[in-house]
Amino acid sequence: MSFIRVSRITLAKGLRPRPIASPSPYSRQFGQKFSTTSLNMAATPQRHFQRPAVFVCDMQEKFRGAIWQFDKILLTAQKVLRAAQILKVPIFVTTQNAAKLGGTVSELEPLTADAQVNADKTAFSMMRVPELASYFPAATQEQSEVVIVGIESHICVTQTALDLLAHGHRVYVLADGVSSCNPEEIPIALARLRVAGVVVTTSESWLYECMGGAGIPEFRDIAKLVKETSAQSKVVLGSLLSKI
After folding, report:
1. Which three-class secondary structure state does DSSP give residue 76?
2. Residue 96: how many CB atoms within 10 A of its CB?
3. Residue from 57, 58, 176, 243 carrying the catalytic annotation
4. Distance CA 162, CA 169 (A)
């Protein structure tokens, strides 16, 4: 039946014909019509990550001499925490049996002073700390984007990442921000996490993905931080990624 014939039948029945609106390029591309409100929101720079969080796992004094390249992952942790302050990303910190293994290293104390949670634990996963886990319930609609730095890559970092995945959150483990006593453990742990669904990436990549664009107000400060730490980052990447 032709369009003209349908129109005549419609008019013959006394029904009011509906005007045919030409689709916008947005509706052609995505298969739906966007409202004016949606387009206005799209014009405003938005961060890519809507619910980011930083996990600092067991960066303690007693591990300083035991963990492979501890000084390198410390540099990455400092950079990530400075970025978190700029972007106002909540920080969550744990220690493992601090009574025996000491508190968080002194270099990170001023950067974690305003942490949302700073708790000691005996379990290996940070998500087994009730105070911390309460911020990350099973995700039904709103996922958090959690980035992890700390130790050890094959124990506490791995178990924390897997627990977050099980709760439906997106997890990022920084290859330049995690380590173990035995360096041979690191590539095995990261390979396992990739298979499980964790994004294994670098601190700089995570920073730019978190922002999503240069239009947000904090971009210049983050770009300045990246420039300031670029020499350190090259050293860290050259040392840690040699095992991946």
Report:
1. helix
2. 23
3. 58
4. 10
Structure tokens at 71: 């000084």
Q: Which of 72, 156, 176, 243 is catalytic?
A: 156
Query: H-helix or E-strand containing 57?
Result: strand 52-57
Q: Which residues pair with 104 in a beta bridge?
A: 60
Q: In this structure, what token pair is assigned to residue 102?
A: 């000491």
The verdict on whether 33 is a catalytic residue reads: no
Q: Does the annotation mark 58 as catalytic? A: yes
Cα–Cα distance between 229 and 204 in angstroms, integer? Answer: 10
Closest CA to 59 of 80, 86, 31: 80
Q: How far is CA 22 from CA 5, 27, 28, 33, in A?
A: 21, 10, 10, 11
For residue range 100-121, list pLDDT tens digits in order.
999 999 999 999 999 999 999 9
Catalytic residue among 72, 79, 121, 243: 121
Segment 152-199, tens digit of pLDDT: 999 999 999 999 999 999 999 999 999 999 999 999 999 999 999 999
Residue with tokens 């045919």: 20
Helix (H, G, I), strand (E, B) or coil at 174: strand
Q: What angle in degrees, to the nearest 10, is found between the helix axes of 219-228 and 203-211?
A: 170
